[in-house]
Amino acid sequence: MSKSQFKKRGSGVLMHISSLPGPFGIGTLGKNAYKFIDFLAKAGQSYWQILPVCPTGYGNSPYQSFSTFAGNPYFIDFDLLKKDGLLAKKDYDGIDWGKDPTSADFGLLYVKRNELFEKLQNNFEKKVPADYKAFCRKNKFWLEDFALFMAVKDAHNGASFMDWEKDIRLREDKALADWKKKCARRIEYYKMLQYLFFKQWKELRAYAASKDIKIIGDIPIYVSADSADVWTHPENFLLSKKGVPLEVAGCPPDAFTDKGQLWGNPVYNWKALKEDGYGWWKQRIKSSLEIYDILRIDHFRGFESFYCIKYGAEDAKNGKWRKGPGVDLFKEVEKALGKVPIIAEDLGYLTPRVHKMLRDCGFPGMKVIQFAFGGDDTNTYLPHNIPENSIVYTGSHDNDPINGWVESASPAELDHAMKYFKLTDKAQMRETMMKAALESKAFVCILTMQDLIGLGHEARMNFPSSVGENWKWRATEEQITADQAKWLKQASKAAGRNE
Question: How far apart are CA 198 and CA 391, in angstroms?
Answer without folding.
Answer: 28
